[in-house]
Amino acid sequence: MMKFLLLAFLLLAQLFGETTLKIATYNVENLFDLEKSGNEYDEYIPNSASDWNQQNYKIKLKNISQVIKDIDADIIALQEVESLQALLDLRFALKQSGLYYEHYAIADKKNTTVKVAILSKLPFVYAQELSVTRTLEHRNILETKFRIEGRELYIFVNHWKSKSGAESERIISAKALMQRAKEIGFDKNMIVLGDFNSDYEEFIKFKRKRNHNDTDGITGINHTLGTINQRVEAKKAIFAKESFYNLWYDTEEEKRYSYFFKGKKEILDNILISQSLLNSKDISYIPKSITSFEKEYLLKKEQPHRWEISQGKVKKHKGKGYSDHLALIAQFRVAK
Questions:
Q1: Can you give the pLDDT at residue 261?
Q2: β 75-81/18-31 pair status
Q3: Helix, strand, coil percent content, the chain, rounded in steps of 5
């Protein structure tokens, strides 16, 4: 029923002179190139005993490009891309498969092991990096600005500190993002997406994990970005002006997942929007369109079919799999 209503909405939008914008985010799980930089994980040193070689690299590119082609987003944010070369190789693999992203950017000013990037069918007004800290502990955020049908849209691509670090590490990224959002103004159209290494209700989930809670219960995604206490669907959402709405609340609870940990569904990836994208003017979120991209070929034993690496004394690439994350998709209406 929900899919029927969404299709009907999209058809009506086309009939009344509106276009739809599909935006996605996907952690591609360690897309490393074959150039030795010295920052690689041991199993991704090119042409070593781990078999990270031309053959396996081509398979990885082919598999990830298959997923991205099937999503066919207008704009897709990426996490865990090693370098500009890896991004260009992925873009070329996509072009070979019939999907061309003319515009691209990567946050590569800081020499972190993996980086965030973006591919777009639409041109940027600009793409720039938002510095979180000077250290390699925190990846830069990629900020892009678009002008679509004369309307401005800002997109921020995130990959926050992993759960190997406590919550205070993720709050650092959240504060840098929030400061920039306030500079732009919360009356503007902003989409904040990516791998936050945070549940949409992290303030509840991490109470059971004392090694994460070093902030007296305060979280980056919920408290700093203002997504706390929003347990309503998008059309009913009313919240403080200087805060974001998490689109996970706009779908059924059992569908809210993008990752598995020890056999249990988890959420690390999120799409947040500013309140202006809920007002049904110029650019607006299409209700109930948030979904994880869950296809049969992406699952193995009912979990994301991650890129396979043997766990012996020498870790070896098997040339199978995709990513340990599922992509997220949301759709937006753009009035002409």
A1: 83
A2: parallel
A3: 30, 30, 45
Q: Which domains does the chain have, with CATH numbers?
A: 19-335 (3.60.10.10)
What's the pLDDT score for residue 212?
85
pLDDT in tens, 169-180: 999 999 999 999
158 strand-pairing partners: 194
Give the whole-angstrom CA distance, residue 319 versus residue 51.
9
**What is the model's pLDDT at position 6?**
61
Residue entry with tokens 């020498």: 314
Q: What pLDDT score was predicted for residue 236?
A: 83
Is the Cβ–Cβ distance between 312 and 218 less than 8 Å? no
Residue in this structure with the two tokens 């999503």, named with its chain if needed:
71
Q: Are strands 75-81 and 115-120 parallel, antiparallel or unpaired?
A: antiparallel
- How far apart are the C-alpha atoms of 90 and 102, rounded to whole Å? 12
Amino acid at 133: T
Of 46, 117, 124, the C-alpha closest to 80 is 117
CB 26 within 8 A of CB 77: yes
Instruction: Let me know: does 197 contact 162? Beta carbons within 8 Å.
Output: yes
User: From CA 7, how far away is CA 242, in angstroms rounded?
Assistant: 32
**CA atoms of 299 and 157, how far apart (whole Å):** 25
Low-confidence stretches of the chain (pLDDT beneath 70): 1-17
d(CA 268, CA 199): 6
Both tokens of 171, joined, read 């709050």
Q: What angle do CA 236, 331, 266 make, to 5 degrees?
A: 75
The pLDDT value given to residue 237: 82
Q: How far, in Å, CA of 102 to CA of 104, rounded?
A: 7
pTM: 0.93
The DSSP code for 178 is H
